[in-house]
Design goal:
Elements: E1 8-13, E2 22-28, E3 32-35, H1 42-54, E4 64-66, H2 72-75, E5 86-89, H3 93-98, H4 101-117, H5 126-129, E6 145-146, E7 152-153, E8 156-163, E9 172-176, E10 181-185, H6 211-222, E11 229-232, H7 241-263, E12 267-268, H8 270-277, H9 286-302, E13 306-311, E14 314-319
Parallel strand pairs: 3-4, 4-5, 5-6, 10-11
Antiparallel strand pairs: 1-2, 2-3, 7-8, 8-9, 9-10, 12-14, 13-14
Helix pairs in contact: 7-9, 8-9
Bound molecules: zinc ion.
Domain Metallo-beta-lactamase: 21-234
Organism: Pontibacillus salicampi
InterPro entries: Metallo-B-lactamas, RibonucZ/Hydroxyglut_hydro, Sec-metab_biosynth-thioest
Length: 320
């Protein structure tokens, strides 16, 4: 159902992904602004046009787009608004919008090397053939200006930018203090926990981000915001977010405990842990299951419950 207030219209479009529909939000203020831009399919574009029409607008009326993060279901239609004069988001969106060849090659090389170090077997080489597949769902463009923690959305000074990395390094949420509303992208969802996904370091040769550890920090940070209502990228609008955050953190600790118990007296590679943790999903959801596994191992390492050792260029994790 369409969620609407005086200044916000929720517009929902379908995606071909397992996550289902994705929401964008039309903000009315000094500028007409779309928060997120769906996915690049004709079905999504038709749904977005129809949604705009339902609330009295056309694509020609949209002046700005603000991005919560760089994933395809959130930046897909950025190049479909002829009168758009501003495209804003975290600086890390830029490389995904411009996606030049050196960046894409670096992305592939990073994962090839990372998964080799994680002990991934030859039979998963096919995964690398499909790394670029999601790009067909992404529009092209570039950022007009990047946003960071403490900024406000241009033309909507009541909406403050809150950096919420974890699900993606580029993730921003937007908080309106006057009524405690948060536009949370995929950082806070009601029906599912977000997957913190592995990403290359921001700068070549830098340290690999630890997305689950970062995600936990961001969740804890959100506990200090008086959030009353969350308008997410997927699923229902909801309240009671602080209870949800506490439950999510506990559940994650339980999953980490499962990994810890699994390690037992063995030294295992992340790939071996992933095979045991997701025997029936690893083939179909290789990237997701590896991200989840490595996330739990990173968390256990951060609380000093596992030790990591590199032997012949491959990482082994041992419970302590
Ligand atoms: Zn999403």
């Amino acid at each position: 159902m369409l969620y609407t207030t005086d200044t916000i219209h929720q517009l929902t479009v379908p995606t071909p992904f397992g996550v289902g529909d994705v929401h964008t939000y039309l903000l009315k203020g000094d500028s007409l602004t779309l928060v997120d831009a769906g996915i690049k399919t004709e079905e999504a574009w038709k749904a977005l046009e129809a949604g705009l029409k339902e609330v009295g607008y056309t694509p020609q009326d949209v002046e700005q787009i603000v991005l919560t993060h760089h994933h395809p279901d959130h930046i897909g239609l950025v190049d479909r608004f002829p009168n758009m004069i501003g495209l804003y988001g975290h600086e890390d969106n830029r490389k995904w919008l411009e996606r030049d060849e050196p960046f894409l090659n670096r992305f592939r090389a990073f994962f090839l090397e990372l998964y080799r170090q994680f002990g991934v077997g030859e039979e998963y080489q096919a995964f690398f053939k499909h790394l670029r597949d999601p790009l067909k769902y992404v529009g092209e463009g570039t950022l007009t200006k990047s946003l960071q923690e403490g900024d406000t959305i241009p033309g909507h000074k009541e909406w403050k930018v809150v950096a919420t990395p974890g699900h993606a390094e580029s993730h921003l949420s937007f908080f309106r203090a006057q009524d405690g509303t948060m536009l949370s992208g995929d950082h806070l969802l009601y029906h599912i926990s977000s997957n913190p996904l592995l990403e290359p370091p921001r700068h070549p040769g830098g340290v690999r981000p630890k997305p689950l550890v970062t995600y936990r920090e961001t969740m804890e940070k959100c506990l200090s915001y008086p959030i009353k209502k969350v308008m997410p990228g997927h699923g229902p609008v909801f309240d009671g977010v602080h209870d949800i955050i506490r439950t999510r953190l506990q559940k994650q600790e339980q999953r980490a405990q499962k990994v810890y118990d699994m390690l037992g007296a063995h030294s295992l590679t992340p790939f071996e842990v992933c095979q045991q943790l997701f025997p029936s999903h690893i083939k179909k959801e290789f990237g997701l299951t590896m991200s989840e596994t490595v996330g739990q191992l990173d968390y256990l390492e951060s609380v000093q419950r596992v030790q990591v050792e590199k032997k012949d260029g491959i990482y082994y994790y041992t419970a302590v």
